[in-house]
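User: For a reading group we're discussing how well predicted structures match intuition. Take Lysine transporter LysE. Before you show the prediction, I'll give you the sequence so everyone sees exactly what went in.
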Amino acid sequence: MYEAIFSIALTTALLLGSPGPAPLALAAVGASSGARGGVPFLSGILLGLLVAIIAAATGLGALLLSYPNLSAVCQIVAIVYLFYVAYKIANNHSGLSDIAGSEVGFRDGFILNLLNPKAYAACIAIFANNSVPDVTPVMGAILAASTCFIIAIVVDSLWLMLGGVLHRFIKTPIQLRNLRLFFAFLLTCLLIWISTTHLLN
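Assistant: Thanks. Here is the predicted 3D structure of Lysine transporter LysE, as structure tokens, for the group to look at:
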């Protein structure tokens, strides 16, 4: 049983921790607002991921992915929404002036992962390729979902903290502005690459 849980943990860390739009957005928010300022965004991402985990554990995620058109629409909406998140990161004025910033928050993270077919696909892959032996199917699903979510908390928190470390080195408003623009640019480039390689093929 412990080997199966370790396998689930490792698979989750690799699938959810590898660089992608959500981890990069977490690092960008951490760099822009600091690790503490990014906690609402992280919480939203995790709640959205929890929906994906529950959907995968109950079979609803597979149902979503079995309709390619619906999955494609969700992916397009998620990419468009990520462009909006990149825009908000680039145009966040907090810490730069007295103008209220367009902070990236809980709702942004939640919507991002709620609409992210990759989150559902990753969770389905985790559940499809890993089962917990010597327990009932329900208990196995609960153990797998719990392990997946705990690892996601750790991995996503690390991405946010990575950005938070960068935030500490920012000494001037110009540096902060440039860092926000840099992360928004990176996120935009990644989204363009995803759009051209995954959606157009």
